[in-house]
Amino acid sequence: MSSQEVRGSLPVQARRPWTVEESNLLFDSKGSNKEWVEISNSLPGRNPRACQSQYHQLMSLWGGGDEGKNELALLYDRHKEDMWSPIAAEMVATWGEVESMHWQLGKAEMEKRGLDDSFRTTPVSRVNLRVPPQATQQQGGSNPRSKWTGEEETFLFACKEDGGGMSWKEIGDLMPGHDASACRSYYLVQTASGTEWPQERKNELCKLYESHKQRMWTPIGNAVRIPSQFPCPWKVAERLHWRLGEKGMTERVSAFGLAPSDEDNDEVHPHSDEEPDQSPHHLQYPQHQTEPAPMAHVGQLGPSMTLPSCAELKAGVDLLFGPPQ
């Protein structure tokens, strides 16, 4: 048989490996809820069945195996300072502040605020605002679970914090789509996610993350090659970090005793004439300086340590969770 097989009307390369670019395009297309036929049309040489098979295979690899999750958690823990420092520099904050806030907001809020331009990044005085158009169209009662637009949120916070002590009833009367109870509930939920940050600052973080996340997660995805030699698409790596959550990521790092100590974090690594380590655990991110303190790590990223091999990781799991000898 030739190097090509013909299935139906589409020529398909026999056993041609999937590239990282193809996999990222596959996940982009699937995330847009496209049909497999439409997805395959954007991937020359791939039929719908091959696209579906590759998608589910990768989701099974990265969504179901502990090895890949452990590897991602370790890489993120080691390189999160360099991942978040460019955003912190633009916001004049520390990388730890912005990284912590992204966990507090969560995936849904980060996406909503990052993609919806109605969520402002600059404060507006109450006197310069009008009742949001969408609110005026929601006559006929309030739904406590109804979605809030950026304009409605801005109006709510302006009334509460710049409204001269307006009551919840007075605020609710100005927003026919949301009564006093709904306004109070939404306000308390939003302030609980980080009272030290105004809404506009949270919105700025979300929008910056949307523009930076491919840069942040591509090196991590390319380095995660457990349990296969195929690099993890950056979108899968980013999605998996949300699925594990802050607690899950921390637990996986601590389980293997690889969390850097405070002393390691404060260490300044001098420049060296030696060639930089090009292993997957030493990712090369551009160096950025943030205020109020400069980055401690220069040159080689993270504490000077060598992570265990795949075989050693597996042996550690067997030792921790295997039956007693």
Strand content range: under 5%
Largest sheet: 2 strands, antiparallel
Assembly context of the chains:
single chain
Uncertain runs = 135-140, 261-280, 290-305
The radius of gyration over CA amounts to: 24 Å
Domain Myb-like: 10-59, 145-187
Region (Disordered): 259-307
Protein name: Myb-like domain-containing protein
Helix and strand arrangement:
Elements: E1 4-7, E2 10-13, H1 20-31, H2 36-41, H3 48-64, H4 66-91, H5 95-115, H6 133-136, H7 150-162, H8 168-174, H9 180-192, H10 199-223, H11 234-255, H12 262-265, H13 310-321
Antiparallel strand pairs: 1-2
Structure notes:
- Helix content is 56%, strand content 2%.
- With 325 residues, the chain is an all-alpha fold.
- Among the domains are: 46 residues, Arc Repressor Mutant, subunit A (Orthogonal Bundle), CATH 1.10.10; 107 residues, no CATH class.
- Strands 1-2 form a two-stranded antiparallel ribbon.
- A hairpin with a 2-residue loop joins strand 1 and strand 2.
- Helix 5 packs across helix 10 and helix 8 packs across helix 9.
- The longest helix has 26 residues.
- About 13% of the residues have low confidence.
For this entry, give a set of tags.
single chain, 325 residues, mainly alpha, Arc Repressor Mutant, subunit A, two-stranded antiparallel sheet, 56% helix, 2% strand, globular, SANT/Myb
